[in-house]
Amino acid sequence: MDIKEALAAFDTLSQETRLRVFRLLVEYGQAGAPAGTLSESLHIPHNTLSFHLSHMSHAGLVVSRREGRSIIYRANFEFFSGLIRYMVEDCCRAEFASIRNDHKRKCSIIELSHCCQPKENIS
Amino acid sequence: MDIKEALAAFDTLSQETRLRVFRLLVEYGQAGAPAGTLSESLHIPHNTLSFHLSHMSHAGLVVSRREGRSIIYRANFEFFSGLIRYMVEDCCRAEFASIRNDHKRKCSIIELSHCCQPKENIS
DNA sequence: TCCATATGTCCAGAATACTGGAAATGTTAC
DNA sequence: GTAACATTTCCAGTATTCTGGACATATGGA
Lengths: 123, 123
What we know:
The structure is a homodimer.
Chain A: H1 3-13, H2 16-28, E1 33-34, H3 35-42, H4 46-59, E2 62-67, E3 70-75, H5 77-90, E4 97-102, E5 107-113
Helix pairs in contact in A: 1-4, 3-4
Chain A binds a DNA duplex through helix 3 and helix 4.
């Protein structure tokens, strides 16, 4: 992920309709959902939605495939986690966020400090 | 962090000048840097910079304090890590990103899967 | 007080983004 | 082939954002 990709990704996520679409797609997971379903669920005219899906797709946050008459969109989690990695590696400081790779478990571990007030909710 | 705050944060980060300012401020760490230094370093006219700093400040990504004639800006790491938490908790799926709090070390641990591989292999 | 410095605010022109009606494309069923 | 369906593309009107010149405000020093 370079700065251009990150800018495009943030641009995609900075628009309410697109963020809502993305969060809805997250719920559909790897299976994804057809454009029409998203359009109905979020009450967005199909052409307006198409414009935003195109934007999201171009930025890399969603991917699509045709399935019969429908076009199925799904969130690109790999890209999204790449964005999170970029934020930690290129936009933060080691005191506040660090990242390391756990090769055995094939994942990245990010440690975010509770810089000022500890968060109370999750155990 | 709610969706409105996240949208404003993404909006701030989606503009090249602002992202460059933010990344520069990250280098200055907790000490921060005066507006003039940022203006010179990045070759941005002071009024244009002021517009963007105001935008960033309003979104919560930077904070400022006056020091003599200068106004010192610094990156708000707490807010930024809050944004990362929001992305993991509200915009991702447990298979790809999970978060837990380590109370003893006062930090959040995020685990990002390397999802290029099939997703089933996470235990 | 008066001046230099540092930064912010006002403003208007230019560029860019968003929206949705209408038409076009692609797909399946009959 | 024709019709119904799913989605995209085209387009133009509207809204929003970005930019930097000109001016305003705030601070510290002589």
